[in-house]
Fold this protein.
Amino acid sequence: MTRKLHLRKTNYTANKYKKFIFSLSKAGKLYWGLNHKALKTIYLGGILPTLLYAAPVWVKAMKIERYKSKLIRVQRIINIKMAKAYRTVSNEALCILTGMTPIAIKIEEAIELYQLTNGNTNKEAKVDNNIGFKHWQHPADTIK
């Protein structure tokens, strides 16, 4: 895909969800309306899957910061609404307050998962292996 097509797709997706989130914010005010759990469910069930749906196609585009920043803005807006915070709060702090993984990390995970499932990767899989409980490290051994 060309850069113009990447820009058009990311602009379209970002603008679509910005409008959706702003319409949700009319129903989620500070003391009434949609609460944190409802907004989190809407984000995790509706917005995030559609943002990640085309992530493997956008591999090259996600390496360019301005394309990635458009999707980060979408997550920032919903995080502000979930945390009922001011706009001046940093994106990292909002992710911690709401318990959401940053969208950039989620996109990288989706791309890696796609490459692992389709065999398009040369690196070793970073997938957890089942370890018997006899081989688990004792919690007292982890604290120093």
In short: The chain has a mean pLDDT of 76. The chain is about 65% helix and 0% strand. The radius of gyration is 18 Å.
